[in-house]
Amino acid sequence: MSGTPARPTVLVLDDEPMVRRTMRRFLEVYGYGTVEAATFEEALNLLATTPVFAVILDVRLPGKHTGLDVLSLLRERKELANIPVLVMTGGIVDEDEERLIARHRAHLFYKPEGFDTLLAFLDQITGRDRPV
Length: 132
Known about the structure:
Number of strands: 5
Number of helices: 5
CATH class: Alpha Beta
Strand order of the largest sheet: 2-1-3-4-5
Oligomer: single chain
């Protein structure tokens, strides 16, 4: 993808601190910058103030909003409508959630797949080669 920064920033939205920390460390080793959010509100604040190249969303969040609510808002905003979104979940998504993910051009990953699979896909959609 042309115009990809040398160290693109990825927003990681997950309510589990250990998942956020692990994801941040893993992405940074492979040349990505990261910003982290634990809630829907934190994610929206970061998206309003920080340029991000891609977003990794957890489906289930505490409170009344989910990661899929963030996905819907991204697609409604002209400036964020085409940002790559990877939806990560440790649980089961129902058929309606799967349709929403597909309709909003996001990609679904299950946490047991591991970070290597997620990173390889992120590299592919950002047009980046992994550092050797």
